[in-house]
Structure formats: structure tokens, C-alpha cells
Design brief:
- The protein is of the alpha+beta class.
- Helix content is 40%, strand content 13%.
- The N and C termini lie far apart (57 Å).
- The model has no long low-confidence stretch (mean pLDDT 93).
């Protein structure tokens, strides 16, 4: 079915990704997930941000899986944090994130959890959101008529 940009915009506003042949080529049209507009939490409502959260989550699991069953020492905690923070800094430097960090917070790591061998790292990250709209305002500026006077 062929659709107009306005129809594609209506689908996008309902959280439905569609394809649009606009300006001579097919593109995916829509950045919202199906949870929008019920939720406006950036990590849940935007497809590119949701994908980045999933990718970062999967990557840290794969990267640090080898640390399981290692002695739970401060060195292990610092190694995990340092490695993850260096990686997130690289993603930030490459423009894939606006910023990111990993912390080991005392209130998220109770004595009971530590005694049970459970470590919890808190990952903060901000992927850039999509440029949903770009608007240009055109205005006639009569001051440029001065070039005619010489």
C-alpha cells in the first residue's frame, strides 16, 4: 500500500514503524516503539535508544561473564568498573553515546548480597535520541536591499 508522509506520520505517532518512499528512496519511518505514547521514558519509547540499551546490556554480560567464579575482591570490582568505563568513554568519544559511566554503589550492594557473592554495578548511559523534526524558518530580510545602493 502506498501512503503519504502524513499517513506515515500518523502511524509513527501511534508507535508503528512503517516504510516510506519519500524523495525517491525507501526509508524506515518512525522512531517510536509501540509503548509510545503511553510511556515517554526515553529508553522505552525510542527505537534507537532501546536498541542501544539492549546492546550495552548484552555486551557487558558477554564481556564480564568470564569474571564469574573469580575471587570477589576490590581489585575485581575496580577491574570491572575501569574496563566498562573505558569502553563507555570510547563509545562517547565515537559519538554513539552522549555519556556513560559504571558505578559500584554501596546502597545497591548490601552486606547480605556481598556475603551471597552478588555484585551489582549501576550503568548510566545516554544514547543520542533521533532528530524527530527539523524546521527551517524562512524570512525576508529587507536589510539586504542595501547592496543595491552600492
Amino acid at each position: 500500500m502506498n501512503q503519504t508522509k502524513a499517513q506515515a506520520d500518523t502511524l509513527n505517532e501511534a508507535g508503528i514503524l512503517t516504510a516510506l518512499n519519500f524523495m525517491g528512496s525507501w526509508v524506515c519511518w518512525g522512531n517510536y516503539t509501540a509503548v509510545y505514547p503511553i510511556s515517554t521514558d526515553a529508553k522505552d519509547m525510542w527505537l534507537p535508544i532501546s536498541r542501544m540499551f539492549s546492546w550495552v546490556g548484552n555486551t557487558v554480560i558477554q564481556t564480564f561473564w568470564s569474571k564469574l567464579d573469580k575471587p570477589m575482591t576490590r581489585r575485581l570490582i575496580d577491574t570491572i568498573m575501569d574496563t566498562a568505563n573505558i569502553w563507555l568513554n570510547g563509545l562517547t568519544g565515537s559519538g554513539y553515546l552522549l555519556g556513560g559511566r559504571v558505578e559500584f554503589l554501596a546502597d545497591e550492594n548490601t552486606t547480605a548480597d556481598l556475603m551471597a557473592g552478588k555484585l551489582k554495578f549501576h550503568v548510566y548511559l545516554t544514547p543520542p535520541g533521533p532528530a524527530q523534526e527539523i524546521e527551517f524558518v524562512l524570512e525576508y530580510d529587507s536589510d539586504y536591499l542595501s547592496v543595491l545602493a552600492g
